[in-house]
Amino acid sequence: MGTTQLESVPEPKYWHLKTVLSEALDQDFAVGEILPNERELAARFGVARATLRQALEQLELEGRLQRRRGVGTTVAPPRVGVVVGSAQQDWPGDNADGWEAVDATESLPTAAVLKLLATGTGAAAFAADQPVHIVRRTRVTQGQVVAAELLYVPAASVPGLSAIDAPAGPPRARAVLRELQRLTLDGQDRSVELGSARADDAKELDRLPGAPVLLVTTRYFTLSGTAAVSVATYRADTCRLTFGDSGDVEITETRVAS
Amino acid sequence: MGTTQLESVPEPKYWHLKTVLSEALDQDFAVGEILPNERELAARFGVARATLRQALEQLELEGRLQRRRGVGTTVAPPRVGVVVGSAQQDWPGDNADGWEAVDATESLPTAAVLKLLATGTGAAAFAADQPVHIVRRTRVTQGQVVAAELLYVPAASVPGLSAIDAPAGPPRARAVLRELQRLTLDGQDRSVELGSARADDAKELDRLPGAPVLLVTTRYFTLSGTAAVSVATYRADTCRLTFGDSGDVEITETRVAS
DNA sequence: AAGTGGTCTAGACCACCAA
DNA sequence: TGGTGGTCTAGACCACTTA
Asked: Are A193 and A173 in contact (CB under 8 A)?
């Protein structure tokens, strides 16, 4: 057969391939450079394309590569450090830290959202028939969309919005945020987990559905209970979430091959 | 052909499959229950096994399933909330928060570690020929190993250890931690990113090499600079990292099917 | 020894992008 | 229109666990 394998250890081929490619990326390629296409790489290493792809997938997961259908595979720049939490707590805002309000709608909470709103500090239980404002925000860093967020604000939290007249789109989103910022923030709560991009988020993040993402869930508390819940979806391939308690001003290099 | 697809939208089969399976998991399966094997599932849905596996992989990535070679595929319990950062900062310890010291060795820092130690607050630049203590720790939550950590402590940070006599293994690891705790912690710095498990970490986490993990990098500062750097590898499939600024005492349910 | 998931192959066709 | 990565197939064999 084509396989001349004399490996004493049955290390998976794709794993070995990944190691070899990783070293080649360090030595022989510059950021932004285009790799040979998958069919040629597979032939060069004497493996099936599926096996080669398994190695590339891992490298993409680790943020080493970037693949685009119809274009090719390029060497990815180092991950962007994105500040997610700092020492002082604050309400979500607009145009701060790269966040941009996109839109706001109002609807009944899903079971999952209801659960997030219900548990936590404060005894206030939210009824399933109480509407919530849903604010969509987007976060841009270095010219790239790195996160999409859904912010759930129970209408009861911001009564001033019972009859708003702001037009749909960013203005309405900003109106909800403004009302929220009037309240006194008493504490917050954050968690990070791995997920895969839903179809709509994937579109905004310029990725395919199912792409790996980091799900950052934040709950905002006032003295009377949970006032809002945010679920932010960060691109896992390009982002490194930072929680800077000290000044982390390290600018990641972004040189690109000519 | 076997494909009777009349889908107007060319949604990938594995994506649709994942949705169907996900709903089935919610309705017809209890936590811990064993699914039919891959060959049977593939036949039942009329797809190739590789396609079925693509859907299962996604569900495993999302923490919905757990697959074990030689055993089968089971419905995973909800992710475990693991406290990674709290309001007050502290040195890494032993037997606190489930951390257990495993061992400590001494060697020269790799380029990557050196870079982590060099950048940051304080002007102290570390020489590549200065040894570092490497402490291995393991974190156990609810009877399961959820994280493996490598803590890099420059020998210069803890001069009291220049001639230690603690036997190898946990005692020596604890000795390094004790010395570290004598210093005054001035600040810390944390980041979270997606990675894939190295072979040694995978073994400790009871996963296959390459399994998705959350990489938590923490830098500990004293007034004279970076005193230590920790790189913790958390199982991404079973863990939800929490940064509790408020009391997040929600105990995740861990009922298992009979 | 039987059954499971993990790896690998050699094809095929499709969706997307740029020239 | 040609080239790229993305999806899918129908097999095969291997590593591991359990009985």
From this structure: no
Q: Is the pLDDT of residue A39 over 80?
A: yes
Q: Do A79 and B15 touch (CB under 8 A)?
A: no
Q: Predicted confidence band at B66 (pLDDT cuts at 50, 70, 90)?
A: very high
Question: Among B34, B26, B47, B109, which residue's Cα sits nearest to residue B73?
Answer: B34
Work out the minimum CA distance from A219 to partner chain B, whole angstroms.
10
Query: Which residue carries 């036949």 as its tokens?
Result: B43
* Contact assessment for residue A132 and residue A180, using Cβ atoms and an 8 Å cutoff: no
Q: Which nucleotide is nearest to B13 (CA to C1')?
A: D7
Rounded-to-integer distance, Cα B22 and Cα B60, Å: 11
Q: Where are the alpha helices (DSSP H) in chain B?
A: 13-28, 38-45, 49-61, 111-118, 170-182, 199-204
For residue B82, pLDDT beyond 90 = yes
Residue A191 is nearest to which of B62, B194, B243, comparing CB atoms? B243
Output DSSP code: residue A87. Answer: S
- Cross-strand pairs, A138: A100, A148
**Model pLDDT for residues B140-154, shown as the tens digit of each residue:** 998 889 999 999 999
pLDDT in tens, A60-106: 999 999 999 999 999 999 999 999 987 677 899 877 788 999 999 99
Taking the CA atoms of chain A, what radius of gyration do you get in angstroms? Answer: 22
Q: CB–CB of B61 and A196 under 8 A?
A: yes
> What separation in angstroms does the CA of A191 have from each of A109, A113, A212, B70?
20, 15, 16, 33
DSSP letter, residue A34: B
Chain A residues with beta carbon closer than 8 angstroms to that of B196: 58, 61-62
Give the gap in angstroms from C-alpha A126 to the nearest C-alpha of chain B: 17
pLDDT tens, position by position, B83-132: 998 767 789 987 778 899 999 999 999 988 998 988 655 545 566 678 99
pLDDT at position A223 = 87
What count of other Cβ atoms lies within 10 Å of the Cβ of residue B192?
25
Report the C-alpha gap between A6 and A68 in whole angstroms.
35
Which residues bind near strand D, taking a CB cut-off of 7 Å?
Answer: A 10, 35, 37-40, 49-50, 53, 67-73, 208, 210; B 1-3, 12-15, 46-51, 54, 68-71
A121 touches chain B (CB under 8 A): yes
Give the number of C-alpha atoms closer than 13 A to the C-alpha of residue A229, restricted to the C-beta side: 21
CB within 8 Å: A191 and B239 = no
Note the helical H segments in chain A: 13-28, 38-45, 49-61, 111-118, 170-182, 199-204
Distance from CA of B130 to the nearest CA of A (A): 24
CB count in 10 Å sphere of residue B57: 16
- Report CA(B204)–C1'(C2) in Å, whole number: 29
Q: How far apart are CA A15 and CA B231, in angstroms?
A: 22
**Which pTM does this prediction carry?**
0.90
> SS3 for B164?
coil
